[in-house]
Write a structure and sequence with these properties.
This protein is mainly alpha-helical. It folds into 3 domains: 78 residues, no CATH class; 45 residues, no CATH class; 108 residues, no CATH class. Helices cover 60% and strands 0% of the residues. It is globular. The structure holds heme C (5 copies). The site of one heme C (HEC) has 19 residues, from helix 5, helix 6, helix 7 and helix 10.
């Protein structure tokens, strides 16, 4: 009976799938079938479609297992389907791709409280509507259901300046790109640097975060002369020139040599 229901749902969902998508790449049956369902079974697909994971082709099976190419057996345990993960499994699943972060998280007070009231990756990022992470996610609403806000606020402040610098460089790269300048290498390097800096949050180690942030800022300022302008923290407001990009490259190269 269940088999019959699935077959019916599958046909229904394939019929409603846009033909353009089908022509370009193989149909992902998890997405098409769940996309045609409602409530608890349909919402994940709706949220996922607008996520950064969808944008990068990380589909349902990346977290739930199963076979997205075989409608009849897609949710068979024999195809690795593992159903809805419980809290204690989540960091390992996400950590399959976000390895460095999972490692930091596991060693942090949050990781150590896993299964005993600590948050998992999806407490903060969500399971399906995952979007680009920002420092603004460290706020009172997200961080005070379980404890006070002081440590969270300290960590946010320690990261704020570096974050502004990275954003300014990002904006400048977009500008250059719009002028038709090839920015692929810069983008890749910025991505690595941003990743390094954002990952560090998950240690929840304020001393380590302060130390790394200060190091990065010093490199950027030393090479750009920003420290002499007297404008202090308002780096985001300054026009970021080639000098800052050069400084970024300098820092990255040095970091690689170290
Ligand atoms: C033909 C339609 C169809 C396809 C294809 C399909 N699903 Fe489902 N899925 C359902 C239905 C109906 C349910 C609810 C009934 C059940 O759990 O057996 C469900 C349940 C689920 C659940 C919740 C299970 C639970 O224990 O609550 C998850 C997670 C899930 N599907 C993920 C996937 C993934 C991942 C794929 C692809 C590998 C997939 N589904 C393919 C229709 C489908
Ligand atoms: C990045 C990992 C990830 C991806 C990708 C993902 N899920 Fe999930 N999903 C989870 C986690 C973790 C949970 C359990 C926590 C929760 O309910 O949010 C979950 C829960 C669910 C549930 C149970 C919801 C409920 O309220 O009981 C369904 C159904 C489901 N996912 C289907 C899907 C479908 C369909 C897709 C693809 C469109 C998908 N998931 C993509 C991680 C993911
Ligand atoms: C199959 C690999 C894979 C799995 C599993 C996976 N992700 Fe991702 N994730 C990616 C890719 C690829 C991107 C897009 C590139 C990037 O930004 O890192 C991404 C992006 C993200 C981002 C945005 C990063 C940014 O640039 O701000 C967050 C947050 C995120 N994932 C959280 C999660 C969480 C939480 C889970 C588990 C529920 C998870 N991911 C599971 C591959 C994966
Ligand atoms: C689901 C509950 C939960 C949420 C939500 C949560 N935490 Fe925690 N947090 C804990 C638990 C449990 C501990 C370990 C016990 C403790 O130290 O209070 C902890 C410990 C910490 C610590 C180390 C202890 C300290 O006070 O110095 C920091 C820092 C921290 N959390 C920051 C955050 C930030 C930032 C957010 C929001 C982005 C957040 N937490 C959201 C449960 C949570
Ligand atoms: C207490 C909340 C919280 C928990 C738990 C948490 N994160 Fe994050 N995560 C954040 C915040 C806040 C940022 C943004 C930090 C910043 O802007 O510097 C972030 C950033 C990220 C990024 C973006 C990194 C980049 O390249 O920019 C990814 C990916 C990510 N987290 C994945 C995970 C995974 C995987 C887990 C579980 C192992 C996890 N997070 C657990 C709050 C959390």
């Amino acid at each position: 009976m269940k088999q019959l229901l699935f077959a019916f749902l599958l046909v229904l969902s394939l019929l409603s799938a846009p033909p353009a998508t089908a022509a370009v790449r193989p149909v992902d049956v998890c997405v098409t079938c769940h996309g045609a369902l409602s409530a608890r079974l349909g919402m994940p697909a709706k949220l996922w479609k607008a996520s950064i994971h969808a944008e990068h082709g990380v589909s349902c099976n990346a977290c739930h297992g199963g076979d997205p190419m075989d409608g009849a057996n897609s949710m068979s345990p024999a195809r690795g389907f593992r159903g809805v993960p419980i809290a204690t499994e989540i960091p390992t699943i996400c950590g399959g791709c976000h390895m460095g972060i999972a490692k930091y998280n596991a060693a942090s007070p949050h990781g150590k409280a896993l299964g005993r009231g600590g948050p998992t990756c999806v407490t903060c990022h969500g399971s399906h509507g995952v979007v680009k992470a920002t420092i603004d996610q460290i706020n009172r609403k997200n961080c005070t259901p379980c404890h006070g806000f002081e440590s969270a606020w300290e960590i946010r402040n320690a990261m704020l300046k570096t974050d502004g610098m990275l954003k300014a460089i990002e904006d400048r790269i977009i500008e250059l790109k719009n002028q038709g300048i090839l920015t692929d290498t810069l983008e890749k390097r910025l991505f690595a640097l941003r990743n390094q800096s954002h990952s560090l949050f998950h240690t929840l180690n304020i001393d380590l975060i302060r130390q790394e942030s200060a190091h990065l800022q010093a490199e950027l300022e030393k090479n750009n002369g920003i420290g002499n302008t007297g404008t202090g923290l308002s780096i985001g407001a300054l026009a970021v020139g080639w000098a800052l990009l050069a400084a970024l490259l300098f820092y990255l190269i040095k970091k690689n040599i170290d």
